[in-house]
Design brief:
It is found in: Cytoplasm. Helix content is 34%, strand content 17%. It is of the alpha/beta class and 316 residues long. The protein folds into 2 domains: 12-144 and 242-314, Rossmann fold; 146-240, no CATH class. The protein has an 8-stranded mixed beta sheet, sandwiched between helices. Helix 1 (90-103) crosses helix 2. It is globular and about 60 Å long. The chain starts with 11 loop residues before the first strand and ends with a helix. The model has no long low-confidence stretch (mean pLDDT 97).
Length: 316
């Protein structure tokens, strides 16, 4: 079974001015003359991790990673409540990917994304299909109203994680629990750390509760990064991912010709496999795999095997 490639360090990195007062952190590792591939991280607001470089053979790929607006090492950080998220939308991120492609003199590249990264990958490919050689998508998140209801109402994932749901729900006064998204929004976007700090922690505890099939310790994230993650994630969910009203499935015809791999864990509680299935029905030409012994995490053995198998198959 395939696993991660060995650790690899960037040989180039920098900050790219993308307008609106924003600079995105980017890095390149692997073979400078290899096949270009860009990794789009999850969240939104999560930032890239060193392990994200390891889905690709560094001898074959020129691996590009970047922190999306206002998170990770990009500037300014959403950890400062004074930083506006007005210019942080899916359209802005798609434009940032194009600007980074041009900055690095890449003609076309493989696009790889999981969870929110799958959403952004589909959005980018539908906007710029001529720039995409292949798509590798994991943990499909379509951000339809029914998808968000699964996560944020008692009729969905709460049935499987009742204690974690109770902690998430009970962090909000009973009088406001009819709309938890709005109630959390009022607190997460409050500039007072005494208000947004506990709300961000409760929001992210629920976000991470169902991430893998077998429990793993949550990542040790400091309060600043956690707050930035919570702010950006809420910002996108509250706005339907800034996706077109007709949703991403309506744009499949624009990418149908692109070789693609769709991978989803059978026991993915964050992005259940019905979303990947619906994408598969709309796009039967794409290779589709349900991993029977996996949840949402991209590093779970069965999922990791399928993802690395895909990048190996697409390498030169």
């Amino acid at each position: 079974m395939r696993g991660f490639y060995p650790e690899v360090e960037p040989h180039d990195s920098g900050l790219l001015d993308v307008g609106d007062g924003n600079e995105i952190y980017w890095e390149v590792c692997g073979n400078p003359d290899g096949k270009p591939a860009v990794f789009l991280h999850g969240g939104p607001g999560g930032g890239v991790l060193p392990a994200n470089r390891r889905f690709f053979d560094p001898a074959a790929y020129r691996i590009v990673l970047f922190d999306q607006r206002n998170c990770g090492r990009s500037l300014p950080s959403a950890s400062d409540p004074a930083v506006s998220l007005e210019h942080n939308t899916t359209a802005h991120l798609v434009a940032d990917i194009e600007r980074l492609r041009e900055h690095l003199s890449v003609d076309r590249w493989l696009v790889f994304g999981g969870s929110w990264g799958s959403t952004l990958s589909l959005s980018y490919a539908q906007a710029h299909p001529e720039r995409v050689t292949e798509l590798v998508l994991r943990g499909i998140w379509l951000i339809r109203p029914e998808d968000e209801a699964w996560s944020l109402t008692p009729g969905g994932a709460a049935h499987l994680f009742p204690a974690e749901w109770a902690a998430f729900r009970d962090a909000i006064p009973a009088a406001e629990r009819d709309d938890l998204l709005a109630a959390y929004g009022r607190r997460i976007h409050d500039p007072d750390p005494a208000v947004h700090g506990p709300a961000s922690r409760a929001w992210m505890d629920w976000e991470m509760a169902a991430n893998t099939l077998l429990p793993v310790p949550p990542p040790d994230v400091g309060p600043a990064l956690l707050y930035a993650f919570a702010r950006i994630l809420h910002h996108y969910i509250a706005n339907g991912g800034f996706l077109p009203e007709e949703g991403l499935l309506a744009g499949v015809d624009r990418v149908r010709h692109i070789p693609a791999v769709i991978v989803n864990g059978r026991y993915d509680i964050k992005t259940p496999p019905d979303q990947a299935w619906d994408l598969h029905l709309a796009w039967p030409e794409a290779e589709f795999t349900i991993v029977e012994d996996a949840g949402h995490g991209g590093s779970e053995p069965g999922t990791l095997h399928r993802l690395v198998e895909a990048t190996d198959r697409f390498r030169p």
